[in-house]
Amino acid sequence: MVTPSYSITCLRKTLLAPNVYELVFERPKGFTFKAGQFVLFDVPVLSNPTDLQPRAYSLASTPDEPDLLFIVKLKEGGRFSVWLEQQIEVGSSLTIKGPFGFFTLRQNTNDCLFVATGAGIAPFRGHILDALKYGNTRTMHLFFGVRNEDDLFWTKTFKELKASHSNLHLHLCLSRASPDWKGKRGRVQDFIPEVIKDPHATDLYVCGAPEMVNDIKKTALEIWSIPKGNVHGEGYV
Fold first, then answer.
1. In the chain, which segments carry CATH 2.40.30.10?
2. What is the pTM of this model?
3. Could you tell me where in the chain the CATH 3.40.50.80 domains are found?
4. DSSP labels for 73-139?
5. Do 96 and 40 contact (CB within 8 A), yes or no?
6. How many C-beta neighbours within 10 Å does residue 224 have?
7. Which CATH class is domain 5-100?
8. CA angle (181 as vertex; 180, 184 as ends), nearest 5
């Protein structure tokens, strides 16, 4: 089966935090997806536009939103990062293939534990907004870990959602916080047991640095006794 390919046009390019861009594209006609899926961008080398390689990025938008939203964390010398900084502007056309992936919410009544570091929060925006829009009342905990205050983004959106939905809880964790930070300090995974006292019946979704994802999945299975079928992870390099 041939994977569909679409041309998309950049509508907005915004620097949200050091080395983190938010990209918004016009949604092409006929493109459908589920919250949490990803697409592959055809990414060229600047010196040779015909030299294309795929790069995967999670959709941060919901299936009902009119545009496509992505988060890109810059990597020094990275193919997509170089292209983004030097070539992608409002009006630029890019090619994507997809959607792909099964990092979607399971249809059950289990509480949801979302754990993200950095740009790994991208799929959880779609998950949470989509679930809340359609009246999902199960308890949802979002743990978001970054290095310092400057690296935080989208917190206003999630705080507003938390204020209007009693089943959503937000936990911010900074590993290198300034002395003025009043919240949690350290690795995001270290604070989960403080909040989730009985995680056995919880669906765990974790996205971020591969080392963190593997660490939390291992802990979930061996220490928290979450059933393997309830543990879902995606490494986000």
1. 5-100
2. 0.94
3. 111-235
4. E--TT-HHHHHHHHT--TT-EEEEEEEE------SSS-EEEEEEEGGGGHHHHHHHHHHHHTT--S-
5. yes
6. 18
7. mainly beta
8. 155
Q: How far apart are CA 29 and CA 40, in angstroms?
A: 17
Give yes or no for a contact between 138 and 110, defined as CB atoms under 8 angstroms apart.
Answer: yes
CATH, domain 111-235, list 3.40.50.300, 3.40.50.80, 3.40.50.150, 3.30.70.270? 3.40.50.80
Q: What is the pLDDT along the chain (237 residues), one digit of tens a residue?
A: 678 999 999 999 999 999 999 999 999 999 999 999 999 999 999 888 889 999 999 999 999 999 999 999 999 999 999 999 999 999 999 999 999 999 999 988 899 999 999 999 999 999 999 999 999 999 999 999 999 999 999 999 999 999 999 999 999 999 999 999 998 898 888 888 888 888 888 999 999 989 999 999 999 999 999 999 999 998 775
